[in-house]
Amino acid sequence: MDAPWHHNSRMPFIRGNVTYARFRIGGDAPARIDQSLLDAFASGRLVPTVGVPTDVETGWTAGEHILDHDFAWDRCVFDGRVHAAMRMDAVRVPGEIRAAYVAQEQTALRKAMADRGGDAAGMPAKPLGRNAKREAKEAAERRWLEEVADGRYRSSKLVPMVWDPATATILAPATSEKVFDALRDLFQATFGARLQAQSAGGLALDLLIAKGIASAFDDVMPDAFTAAPTPRNLEQSAEVGERPDVPWAMAGPEPKDFLGNVFLLWLWWHTEANEGLFDLEDGRSVSMMVDRSIDMECAWGVTGRQSLRGDGPGRSAEVSKALQQGKWPRKIGFTVADGEAEWTFDLQGDLFRVGGLKIPRPEDRPGSEHEAIAQRIESTFDVDGILLELYGRFLDERFSGTWNSRRGELREWIAGKNTARVMATV
Questions:
Q1: Structural domain includes residue 204
Q2: Whole-number mean pLDDT of the chain?
Protein backbone atom coordinates (compact mmCIF):
# COMPACT_ATOMS: atom_id res chain seq x y z
CA MET A 1 0.00 0.00 0.00
CA ASP A 2 1.37 3.41 -0.93
CA ALA A 3 2.34 5.83 1.79
CA PRO A 4 0.05 8.88 1.83
CA TRP A 5 1.23 11.86 -0.18
CA HIS A 6 -0.50 15.17 0.15
CA HIS A 7 -0.08 17.29 -2.95
CA ASN A 8 1.82 20.54 -2.62
CA SER A 9 1.68 23.19 -5.33
CA ARG A 10 5.39 23.85 -4.81
CA MET A 11 6.32 20.39 -6.09
CA PRO A 12 6.31 20.85 -9.88
CA PHE A 13 7.27 17.27 -10.66
CA ILE A 14 4.30 16.08 -8.64
CA ARG A 15 1.63 18.60 -9.53
CA GLY A 16 1.12 21.54 -11.85
CA ASN A 17 3.42 22.81 -14.57
CA VAL A 18 7.09 21.84 -14.53
CA THR A 19 10.11 24.11 -14.84
CA TYR A 20 13.56 22.61 -14.82
CA ALA A 21 17.20 23.06 -15.66
CA ARG A 22 19.46 20.10 -16.47
CA PHE A 23 22.42 19.06 -14.33
CA ARG A 24 25.06 16.46 -15.04
CA ILE A 25 26.58 14.40 -12.23
CA GLY A 26 30.31 13.75 -12.30
CA GLY A 27 32.58 11.79 -10.02
CA ASP A 28 31.64 8.78 -7.93
CA ALA A 29 27.91 9.28 -7.60
CA PRO A 30 25.79 6.17 -7.04
CA ALA A 31 24.85 4.55 -10.35
CA ARG A 32 21.81 2.78 -8.95
CA ILE A 33 19.23 3.27 -6.26
CA ASP A 34 19.47 1.27 -3.05
CA GLN A 35 18.72 1.78 0.61
CA SER A 36 22.12 3.35 1.25
CA LEU A 37 21.23 6.18 -1.14
CA LEU A 38 18.00 6.91 0.72
CA ASP A 39 19.88 6.70 4.01
CA ALA A 40 22.33 9.31 2.71
CA PHE A 41 19.42 11.64 1.98
CA ALA A 42 18.08 11.08 5.49
CA SER A 43 21.49 11.78 7.03
CA GLY A 44 21.66 15.05 5.12
CA ARG A 45 18.40 16.49 6.40
CA LEU A 46 18.53 20.03 7.71
CA VAL A 47 18.86 20.60 11.45
CA PRO A 48 18.46 24.37 11.86
CA THR A 49 21.17 26.16 13.81
CA VAL A 50 20.33 27.12 17.37
CA GLY A 51 20.94 30.84 17.65
CA VAL A 52 21.95 33.04 14.76
CA PRO A 53 22.80 31.21 11.49
CA THR A 54 25.94 32.51 9.81
CA ASP A 55 24.79 31.73 6.27
CA VAL A 56 22.15 30.00 4.17
CA GLU A 57 21.50 26.51 5.56
CA THR A 58 20.50 23.56 3.42
CA GLY A 59 19.43 19.96 3.83
CA TRP A 60 17.31 17.27 2.22
CA THR A 61 13.61 16.56 2.59
CA ALA A 62 11.54 13.78 1.06
CA GLY A 63 9.73 16.44 -0.94
CA GLU A 64 6.26 16.87 0.53
CA HIS A 65 7.15 19.82 2.76
CA ILE A 66 10.15 21.30 4.56
CA LEU A 67 9.73 18.94 7.55
CA ASP A 68 9.19 15.77 5.51
CA HIS A 69 11.96 13.36 6.52
CA ASP A 70 10.27 10.09 5.58
CA PHE A 71 12.66 8.84 2.89
CA ALA A 72 10.75 5.61 2.34
CA TRP A 73 11.24 3.70 -0.90
CA ASP A 74 7.60 3.98 -1.97
CA ARG A 75 7.62 7.75 -1.35
CA CYS A 76 10.87 8.66 -3.11
CA VAL A 77 11.59 6.08 -5.81
CA PHE A 78 9.64 6.10 -9.07
CA ASP A 79 10.63 3.64 -11.81
CA GLY A 80 14.36 3.91 -11.20
CA ARG A 81 14.41 7.64 -10.41
CA VAL A 82 14.57 9.45 -7.08
CA HIS A 83 12.38 12.38 -6.17
CA ALA A 84 13.52 14.50 -3.23
CA ALA A 85 13.92 18.18 -2.41
CA MET A 86 16.46 20.58 -0.98
CA ARG A 87 15.37 22.82 1.86
CA MET A 88 17.03 26.23 1.96
CA ASP A 89 16.76 28.34 5.09
CA ALA A 90 17.87 31.95 5.19
CA VAL A 91 17.56 34.81 7.63
CA ARG A 92 16.03 37.96 6.19
CA VAL A 93 15.36 40.76 8.63
CA PRO A 94 13.09 43.19 6.73
CA GLY A 95 14.70 46.52 5.99
CA GLU A 96 11.70 48.28 7.53
CA ILE A 97 12.32 46.47 10.83
CA ARG A 98 16.01 47.38 10.81
CA ALA A 99 15.22 51.04 10.08
CA ALA A 100 12.50 51.16 12.75
CA TYR A 101 14.78 49.69 15.43
CA VAL A 102 17.55 52.15 14.59
CA ALA A 103 15.07 55.05 14.74
CA GLN A 104 13.78 53.86 18.13
CA GLU A 105 17.29 53.57 19.55
CA GLN A 106 18.19 57.02 18.26
CA THR A 107 15.06 58.46 19.87
CA ALA A 108 15.96 56.81 23.16
CA LEU A 109 19.47 58.28 23.00
CA ARG A 110 18.10 61.74 22.27
CA LYS A 111 15.87 61.59 25.31
CA ALA A 112 18.73 60.32 27.46
CA MET A 113 20.99 63.12 26.22
CA ALA A 114 18.37 65.87 26.52
CA ASP A 115 19.81 69.17 27.84
CA ARG A 116 18.72 72.75 28.25
CA GLY A 117 18.82 73.22 24.48
CA GLY A 118 16.09 70.64 24.01
CA ASP A 119 12.40 71.23 23.58
CA ALA A 120 9.61 70.45 26.00
CA ALA A 121 9.56 66.81 24.87
CA GLY A 122 13.19 66.40 25.85
CA MET A 123 14.48 66.47 22.30
CA PRO A 124 17.86 68.18 21.95
CA ALA A 125 18.33 70.89 19.34
CA LYS A 126 21.53 69.45 17.91
CA PRO A 127 21.57 66.15 15.95
CA LEU A 128 23.21 62.96 17.22
CA GLY A 129 26.93 62.71 16.68
CA ARG A 130 28.72 59.92 14.82
CA ASN A 131 29.45 57.89 17.96
CA ALA A 132 25.86 58.15 19.15
CA LYS A 133 24.55 57.02 15.77
CA ARG A 134 26.90 54.03 15.86
CA GLU A 135 25.73 53.19 19.38
CA ALA A 136 22.10 53.30 18.23
CA LYS A 137 22.84 51.07 15.24
CA GLU A 138 24.65 48.51 17.40
CA ALA A 139 21.82 48.46 19.92
CA ALA A 140 19.28 47.95 17.11
CA GLU A 141 21.36 45.12 15.67
CA ARG A 142 21.47 43.38 19.05
CA ARG A 143 17.67 43.56 19.18
CA TRP A 144 17.05 41.92 15.82
CA LEU A 145 19.79 39.32 16.35
CA GLU A 146 18.09 38.29 19.59
CA GLU A 147 14.87 37.87 17.63
CA VAL A 148 16.67 35.85 14.95
CA ALA A 149 18.07 33.59 17.67
CA ASP A 150 14.48 32.99 18.82
CA GLY A 151 13.56 31.82 15.31
CA ARG A 152 12.06 34.97 13.82
CA TYR A 153 12.77 36.22 10.29
CA ARG A 154 13.76 32.80 8.97
CA SER A 155 12.42 31.85 5.56
CA SER A 156 12.45 28.39 4.00
CA LYS A 157 12.44 27.44 0.33
CA LEU A 158 11.79 23.98 -1.10
CA VAL A 159 13.64 23.05 -4.32
CA PRO A 160 12.44 19.69 -5.71
CA MET A 161 14.58 17.52 -7.94
CA VAL A 162 14.41 14.24 -9.83
CA TRP A 163 17.60 12.20 -10.08
CA ASP A 164 18.06 9.62 -12.82
CA PRO A 165 21.13 7.55 -11.80
CA ALA A 166 21.10 5.61 -15.08
CA THR A 167 21.95 8.75 -17.06
CA ALA A 168 23.70 10.64 -14.23
CA THR A 169 21.21 13.46 -14.69
CA ILE A 170 19.23 15.68 -12.33
CA LEU A 171 16.30 17.85 -13.34
CA ALA A 172 15.52 20.66 -10.90
CA PRO A 173 14.10 24.20 -10.92
CA ALA A 174 17.43 25.51 -9.62
CA THR A 175 17.34 28.39 -12.07
CA SER A 176 19.23 31.02 -10.09
CA GLU A 177 22.94 31.02 -9.31
CA LYS A 178 22.31 31.12 -5.57
CA VAL A 179 19.98 28.12 -5.61
CA PHE A 180 22.25 26.12 -7.92
CA ASP A 181 25.31 26.82 -5.75
CA ALA A 182 23.41 25.60 -2.70
CA LEU A 183 22.21 22.44 -4.49
CA ARG A 184 25.69 21.72 -5.86
CA ASP A 185 27.34 22.08 -2.45
CA LEU A 186 24.71 19.98 -0.68
CA PHE A 187 24.87 17.22 -3.29
CA GLN A 188 28.66 17.07 -3.10
CA ALA A 189 28.62 17.04 0.70
CA THR A 190 26.09 14.19 0.72
CA PHE A 191 27.25 11.99 -2.14
CA GLY A 192 30.82 13.14 -2.85
CA ALA A 193 29.98 13.87 -6.48
CA ARG A 194 30.07 16.99 -8.63
CA LEU A 195 26.98 18.66 -10.00
CA GLN A 196 27.39 20.69 -13.17
CA ALA A 197 24.74 22.85 -14.83
CA GLN A 198 24.13 21.85 -18.45
CA SER A 199 23.46 24.91 -20.55
CA ALA A 200 23.36 24.56 -24.33
CA GLY A 201 27.13 24.82 -24.79
CA GLY A 202 28.07 22.32 -22.11
CA LEU A 203 25.36 19.92 -23.23
CA ALA A 204 26.57 20.21 -26.82
CA LEU A 205 30.10 19.28 -25.78
CA ASP A 206 28.84 16.24 -23.86
CA LEU A 207 26.76 15.06 -26.82
CA LEU A 208 29.60 15.65 -29.28
CA ILE A 209 32.03 13.72 -27.10
CA ALA A 210 29.57 10.81 -27.02
CA LYS A 211 29.36 10.99 -30.82
CA GLY A 212 33.14 11.18 -31.20
CA ILE A 213 33.01 14.50 -33.07
CA ALA A 214 34.04 16.97 -30.37
CA SER A 215 37.26 18.15 -32.03
CA ALA A 216 35.60 21.10 -33.77
CA PHE A 217 33.72 22.37 -30.71
CA ASP A 218 36.31 24.92 -29.61
CA ASP A 219 36.41 26.54 -33.06
CA VAL A 220 32.67 26.85 -33.67
CA MET A 221 31.58 30.44 -34.25
CA PRO A 222 28.16 32.13 -34.46
CA ASP A 223 26.61 32.15 -37.93
CA ALA A 224 25.49 35.29 -39.72
CA PHE A 225 22.01 34.47 -41.02
CA THR A 226 21.47 38.07 -42.10
CA ALA A 227 23.58 41.10 -42.84
CA ALA A 228 24.71 42.97 -39.76
CA PRO A 229 22.15 45.57 -38.64
CA THR A 230 22.99 49.22 -39.12
CA PRO A 231 24.78 50.56 -36.02
CA ARG A 232 22.91 53.26 -34.14
CA ASN A 233 25.98 55.17 -32.93
CA LEU A 234 29.75 55.40 -33.37
CA GLU A 235 30.43 53.04 -30.49
CA GLN A 236 28.34 50.31 -32.11
CA SER A 237 30.02 50.97 -35.47
CA ALA A 238 33.34 49.98 -33.95
CA GLU A 239 31.91 46.78 -32.45
CA VAL A 240 29.64 45.38 -35.19
CA GLY A 241 31.42 42.89 -37.41
CA GLU A 242 30.48 40.40 -40.10
CA ARG A 243 29.61 37.78 -37.49
CA PRO A 244 27.33 38.38 -34.52
CA ASP A 245 29.04 38.29 -31.15
CA VAL A 246 25.87 37.06 -29.34
CA PRO A 247 26.37 39.24 -26.25
CA TRP A 248 24.28 37.15 -23.85
CA ALA A 249 26.43 34.08 -24.55
CA MET A 250 29.71 35.98 -24.42
CA ALA A 251 28.70 37.46 -21.05
CA GLY A 252 27.94 34.03 -19.56
CA PRO A 253 30.17 31.23 -18.31
CA GLU A 254 29.89 29.24 -21.57
CA PRO A 255 30.39 31.28 -24.79
CA LYS A 256 29.16 28.35 -26.91
CA ASP A 257 25.67 28.63 -25.44
CA PHE A 258 24.68 30.42 -28.66
CA LEU A 259 24.33 26.92 -30.14
CA GLY A 260 21.08 26.63 -28.19
CA ASN A 261 19.73 29.75 -29.88
CA VAL A 262 20.64 28.42 -33.32
CA PHE A 263 18.91 25.19 -32.29
CA LEU A 264 15.74 27.19 -31.62
CA LEU A 265 16.07 28.81 -35.04
CA TRP A 266 16.56 25.37 -36.61
CA LEU A 267 13.47 23.99 -34.86
CA TRP A 268 11.46 27.04 -35.88
CA TRP A 269 12.52 26.60 -39.51
CA HIS A 270 11.50 22.92 -39.33
CA THR A 271 8.03 23.85 -38.09
CA GLU A 272 7.47 25.94 -41.23
CA ALA A 273 9.54 24.16 -43.88
CA ASN A 274 8.80 20.56 -42.84
CA GLU A 275 5.58 20.98 -40.84
CA GLY A 276 7.58 20.32 -37.68
CA LEU A 277 7.60 16.55 -38.22
CA PHE A 278 10.41 14.40 -36.82
CA ASP A 279 10.89 10.63 -36.76
CA LEU A 280 12.50 9.55 -33.50
CA GLU A 281 14.88 6.66 -32.94
CA ASP A 282 12.28 4.77 -30.88
CA GLY A 283 9.93 4.64 -33.88
CA ARG A 284 7.63 7.45 -32.82
CA SER A 285 6.83 10.46 -34.97
CA VAL A 286 6.48 13.80 -33.23
CA SER A 287 5.22 17.13 -34.44
CA MET A 288 6.35 20.51 -33.13
CA MET A 289 4.60 23.84 -33.44
CA VAL A 290 5.71 27.31 -32.38
CA ASP A 291 2.98 28.45 -30.05
CA ARG A 292 2.05 31.29 -27.70
CA SER A 293 5.33 33.19 -27.35
CA ILE A 294 8.69 34.14 -28.84
CA ASP A 295 11.35 36.17 -27.02
CA MET A 296 14.11 37.56 -29.24
CA GLU A 297 17.27 39.61 -28.91
CA CYS A 298 19.70 41.10 -31.41
CA ALA A 299 22.68 38.78 -31.87
CA TRP A 300 24.83 41.82 -32.72
CA GLY A 301 23.68 43.77 -29.67
CA VAL A 302 22.27 46.58 -31.85
CA THR A 303 18.49 46.35 -32.29
CA GLY A 304 17.53 45.33 -28.76
CA ARG A 305 14.92 42.84 -27.59
CA GLN A 306 11.41 41.93 -28.62
CA SER A 307 8.71 39.67 -27.15
CA LEU A 308 5.57 38.51 -28.92
CA ARG A 309 2.53 36.78 -27.43
CA GLY A 310 -0.47 35.28 -29.18
CA ASP A 311 -1.54 32.47 -31.49
CA GLY A 312 1.02 31.42 -34.09
CA PRO A 313 3.62 34.08 -33.30
CA GLY A 314 6.19 32.46 -35.58
CA ARG A 315 4.37 33.65 -38.71
CA SER A 316 3.74 37.24 -37.63
CA ALA A 317 4.99 40.23 -39.59
CA GLU A 318 6.70 41.61 -36.48
CA VAL A 319 8.74 38.49 -35.90
CA SER A 320 9.70 38.30 -39.58
CA LYS A 321 11.05 41.84 -39.40
CA ALA A 322 12.85 41.05 -36.14
CA LEU A 323 14.64 38.09 -37.72
CA GLN A 324 15.64 40.18 -40.71
CA GLN A 325 17.05 42.83 -38.36
CA GLY A 326 19.41 40.33 -36.78
CA LYS A 327 17.39 39.21 -33.78
CA TRP A 328 17.71 35.59 -32.67
CA PRO A 329 15.24 33.60 -30.56
CA ARG A 330 16.13 33.43 -26.87
CA LYS A 331 13.01 31.54 -25.80
CA ILE A 332 10.17 29.96 -27.79
CA GLY A 333 6.88 28.42 -26.74
CA PHE A 334 6.32 24.99 -28.32
CA THR A 335 3.58 22.42 -28.57
CA VAL A 336 4.87 18.88 -29.09
CA ALA A 337 2.69 15.85 -29.83
CA ASP A 338 3.49 12.21 -30.53
CA GLY A 339 -0.01 10.96 -31.40
CA GLU A 340 -0.76 9.84 -27.85
CA ALA A 341 0.27 12.80 -25.72
CA GLU A 342 0.66 16.53 -26.20
CA TRP A 343 2.93 18.84 -24.22
CA THR A 344 3.27 22.61 -24.17
CA PHE A 345 6.32 24.37 -22.77
CA ASP A 346 8.84 27.16 -23.26
CA LEU A 347 12.44 26.37 -24.17
CA GLN A 348 15.15 28.91 -23.42
CA GLY A 349 17.76 27.99 -25.98
CA ASP A 350 21.05 29.23 -24.55
CA LEU A 351 20.33 27.83 -21.07
CA PHE A 352 18.52 24.74 -22.41
CA ARG A 353 15.92 25.38 -19.74
CA VAL A 354 12.32 24.17 -19.93
CA GLY A 355 9.60 26.30 -18.36
CA GLY A 356 5.87 25.93 -17.84
CA LEU A 357 5.80 22.32 -19.08
CA LYS A 358 2.18 21.18 -19.02
CA ILE A 359 1.97 17.44 -18.41
CA PRO A 360 -0.97 15.79 -20.23
CA ARG A 361 -3.49 13.86 -18.18
CA PRO A 362 -3.33 10.10 -18.74
CA GLU A 363 -6.27 8.53 -20.56
CA ASP A 364 -6.72 5.92 -17.84
CA ARG A 365 -6.94 6.96 -14.21
CA PRO A 366 -3.79 5.82 -12.35
CA GLY A 367 -4.33 3.01 -9.89
CA SER A 368 -2.52 4.82 -7.07
CA GLU A 369 -0.96 8.13 -6.22
CA HIS A 370 2.47 6.57 -6.57
CA GLU A 371 1.60 5.49 -10.11
CA ALA A 372 0.30 8.98 -10.93
CA ILE A 373 3.55 10.58 -9.77
CA ALA A 374 5.61 8.01 -11.67
CA GLN A 375 3.68 8.80 -14.85
CA ARG A 376 4.28 12.55 -14.45
CA ILE A 377 8.00 12.04 -13.90
CA GLU A 378 8.19 9.69 -16.88
CA SER A 379 6.34 12.24 -19.02
CA THR A 380 8.80 14.96 -17.99
CA PHE A 381 11.76 12.81 -18.95
CA ASP A 382 9.98 11.90 -22.19
CA VAL A 383 9.96 15.58 -23.20
CA ASP A 384 13.56 15.95 -22.08
CA GLY A 385 14.53 12.92 -24.16
CA ILE A 386 12.80 14.32 -27.26
CA LEU A 387 14.65 17.62 -26.89
CA LEU A 388 17.97 15.84 -26.36
CA GLU A 389 17.50 13.71 -29.47
CA LEU A 390 16.56 16.69 -31.61
CA TYR A 391 19.45 18.73 -30.23
CA GLY A 392 21.80 15.88 -31.09
CA ARG A 393 20.37 15.78 -34.60
CA PHE A 394 20.91 19.53 -34.94
CA LEU A 395 24.51 19.19 -33.74
CA ASP A 396 25.12 16.43 -36.30
CA GLU A 397 24.18 18.95 -39.00
CA ARG A 398 25.95 21.90 -37.43
CA PHE A 399 29.27 20.04 -37.21
CA SER A 400 29.08 18.35 -40.61
CA GLY A 401 29.87 19.35 -44.17
CA THR A 402 26.16 19.82 -44.90
CA TRP A 403 25.87 22.84 -42.62
CA ASN A 404 26.80 25.35 -45.31
CA SER A 405 23.82 24.20 -47.34
CA ARG A 406 21.48 24.24 -44.34
CA ARG A 407 22.70 27.69 -43.31
CA GLY A 408 21.84 28.91 -46.80
CA GLU A 409 18.32 27.51 -46.42
CA LEU A 410 17.92 29.27 -43.09
CA ARG A 411 19.09 32.54 -44.64
CA GLU A 412 16.60 32.21 -47.49
CA TRP A 413 13.82 31.35 -45.06
CA ILE A 414 14.54 34.44 -42.95
CA ALA A 415 14.80 36.71 -45.98
CA GLY A 416 11.52 35.39 -47.36
CA LYS A 417 9.50 35.65 -44.15
CA ASN A 418 6.96 38.41 -44.67
CA THR A 419 3.30 38.06 -43.76
CA ALA A 420 0.57 40.59 -43.28
CA ARG A 421 -0.54 39.15 -39.97
CA VAL A 422 -0.05 41.50 -37.04
CA MET A 423 0.79 40.37 -33.51
CA ALA A 424 0.84 42.31 -30.26
CA THR A 425 4.39 43.32 -29.39
CA VAL A 426 5.11 43.54 -25.67
A1: no
A2: 88
